[in-house]
Structures are given as structure tokens and as C-alpha cells.
Amino acid sequence: MLKRFYELRNEIADFMQIKNKPLSVLNDLKWMCDLAFLVDLTGYLIDLNLKIQKQGHLDPGEEGSDSYETSREAALAPTGRAERHHADLKE
Q1: 65-76 and 29-55 helices cross at what angle (nearest 10)?
Q2: Which stretches does UniProt call biased (Basic and acidic residues) (predicted)?
Q3: CA 39 remoteness from chain centre
């Protein structure tokens, strides 16, 4: 949902302008950079969550350092996602 909002930000700004309810935050570069960073961060977290679940290492009842180490290694491994949004913002 957050990623979709980011992708449609220009259309949303246009729509709100037509309705005479402009969203000033969509013109604020700092706010947009924060939003882009948040979109990227949630993307990384989603990738990590899926990767850990796929490997079968996300068991709430499982305890011990082995589970932690495996999760840590999965977190540090590259996700393979090339698309990041914070890099496309320009002043």
C-alpha cells in the first residue's frame, strides 16, 4: 500500500489539486525523501521476512542461538531487489 501510494504520488497530487485540497507534503522534498526511504525500508523488511519464512527459520516456538544466527545471516544476505525509490528523487 505504501509503495503504491509512492508510485501514484504525482497522480494523487493532481487529483487533490483538482479537488481544491492540495497536499503540500507532496511538494516537500524532505518529506518525499523520507517517504521514499520508508518505502525502501519496508521493501527490505518484506524481502527479509519472506526469505526467513521460505528457509523455515521463522518459528515462534524455536529458541536457541542457532535460530538467531541463521536469521542474522539471512538478514545480511543480499535480497536481490534492484528497485529502490529513494535514489530517484532529485532536487
Answers
A1: 130
A2: 81-91
A3: 3
Residue 35: how many CB atoms within 10 A of its CB?
20
Q: DSSP string spanning 20-66?
A: T---GGGG-HHHHHHHHHHHHHHHHHHHHHHHHHHHT---TT--SHH
Per residue in 46-90, pLDDT (tens digit) is 999 999 998 876 555 555 556 656 666 666 666 555 556 666 665
Backbone angles phi, psi at 24, to 5 degrees: -65, -25
Q: Indicate the pTM of the whole model.
A: 0.58
pLDDT at 56: 78
Q: What is the extent of the structural domain holding 26?
A: 2-88
What value does the CA radius of gyration of the chain take, rounded to a whole number of Å? 18
